[in-house]
């Protein structure tokens, strides 16, 4: 139906134009200098229409040519990008397989024509590190930094990680300090700093970043506790090496309450005081700890140190005994504290009570020493034999000659 209407309209327009041409063709005169051109109006209209059609045809041809050129460029770009992706993928596979030279070549080749070459250059730097090519590491890290805006942190993290693997701890620390101020935005900086501080045994600095590591949940609570305990132990060892008992006291006073009753740390601190010839300080912190928590290691050491007032020390230990009852470790400690108070009979009673509960080489040797010094040599010998039998290196049960038998024994 639409075609029929269009044909009718075309015929009507043609009839009108034919009638107009027959009625009056008119004319158009164009003069330019000495040249004139004369034609009918309808010829002029036809020429003008033809000109417009030619211009329109040229425009359409140019537009189509431009689209074709764009399509061709897009096709070439797509093929090049696909080729680069293939090289990158092959490079990644080679990197994972440990083929460092092949990986570096493929990754660098792909990076030259890539619009996102950052990852390629970072991995090329790591491949160079694996090849022992430090110049290559610096070159590709430099290219990576210039490959993308705000890539300095990513480059610094990779550089520090490679320096850390090479044992260049001071260099790694300097690299990380350049981006340390942005740790809130890049928490991975803190993880590497933690490793560097551990390697450098910079315990104070390590403790300083633990709150940030906890804030960003970069390590689990168990690992954070281990790190803090290790850092505290490192600080304590340094003070002991410096022979600084006052420093140990100041350090202990500043510790958070939970750490002052930590099983390992309190024991290490008390042992540090003993090494620094300050047994009263060791006795004090052990007593404070045992009033809150009960650990056999603390009790054993408490019996080995001398407090500022050994009578009060004995009274405190006896009070624990009334609360705890039959505790072999505490009874041994009570025996030793009784010896410090020169209460020989009480000491022997405590040692013997401990032996009845748990006969160990340690308590038997204590009884042997005490019996010998009290003039009971027979008991001393008996306890020595028992102590030797309790030791882990006890001899196997084998036939032995009687004391009255001859030296030669049986003849083979």
From TrEMBL:
Protein's UniProt keywords contain Membrane: yes
GO cellular component, one term: plasma membrane
Swiss-Prot/TrEMBL keywords: Cell inner membrane, Cell membrane, Membrane, Porphyrin biosynthesis, Transmembrane, Transmembrane helix
Domain of life: Bacteria
Annotated transmembrane regions: 42-62
Record-linked Pfam families: HemY_N
GO BP term, example: heme metabolic process
Primary subcellular site in the record, as a coarse category: membrane
Pathway: Porphyrin-containing compound metabolism; protoheme biosynthesis
Function text: Involved in a late step of protoheme IX synthesis.
Protein name: HemY N-terminal domain-containing protein
Organism: Spongiibacter nanhainus
């Amino acid at each position: 139906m639409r075609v029929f209407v269009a044909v009718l309209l075309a015929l009507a327009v043609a009839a009108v134009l034919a009638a107009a041409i027959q009625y009056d063709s008119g004319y158009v005169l164009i003069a330019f200098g000495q040249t004139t051109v004369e034609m009918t109006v309808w010829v002029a209209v036809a020429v003008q229409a033809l000109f417009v059609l030619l211009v329109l045809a040229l425009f359409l041809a140019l537009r189509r040519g431009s689209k074709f050129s764009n399509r061709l460029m897009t096709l070439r770009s797509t093929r090049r990008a696909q080729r680069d992706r293939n090289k990158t993928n092959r490079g990644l596979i080679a990197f994972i397989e440990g083929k460092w030279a092949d990986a570096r070549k493929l990754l660098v080749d792909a990076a030259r024509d890539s619009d996102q070459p950052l990852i390629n250059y970072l991995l090329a730097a790591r491949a160079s590190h694996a090849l022992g090519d430090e110049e290559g590491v610096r070159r590709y890290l430099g290219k990576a930094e210039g490959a993308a805006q705000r890539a300095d942190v990513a480059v610094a993290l990779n550089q520090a990680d490679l320096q850390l693997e090479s044992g260049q701890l001071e260099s790694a620390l300097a690299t990380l300090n350049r981006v340390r101020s942005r740790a809130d935005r890049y928490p991975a900086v803190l993880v590497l700093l933690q490793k560097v501080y551990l390697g450098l045994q910079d315990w104070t600095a390590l403790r300083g970043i633990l709150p940030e590591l906890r804030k960003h949940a970069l390590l689990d609570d168990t690992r954070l506790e281990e790190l803090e305990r290790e850092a505290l132990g490192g600080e304590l060892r340094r003070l002991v090496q410096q022979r600084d008992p006052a420093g140990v006291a100041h350090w202990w006073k500043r510790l958070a309450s939970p750490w002052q009753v930590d099983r390992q740390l309190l024991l290490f601190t008390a042992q540090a005081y003993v090494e620094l010839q300050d047994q009263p300080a060791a006795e004090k912190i052990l007593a404070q700890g045992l009033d809150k928590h009960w650990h056999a290691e603390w009790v054993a050491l408490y019996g080995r140190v001398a407090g500022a007032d050994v009578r009060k020390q004995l009274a405190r230990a006896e009070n624990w005994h009334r609360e705890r009852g039959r505790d072999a470790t505490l009874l041994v400690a009570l025996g030793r504290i009784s010896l410090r108070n020169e209460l020989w009979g009480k000491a022997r009673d405590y040692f013997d009570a401990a032996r009845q509960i748990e006969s160990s080489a340690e308590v038997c040797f204590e009884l042997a020493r005490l019996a010998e010094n009290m003039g009971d040599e027979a008991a001393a010998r008996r306890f020595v034999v028992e102590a030797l039998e309790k030791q882990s290196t006890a001899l196997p049960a084998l036939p032995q000659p009687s004391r009255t038998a001859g030296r030669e024994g049986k003849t083979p």
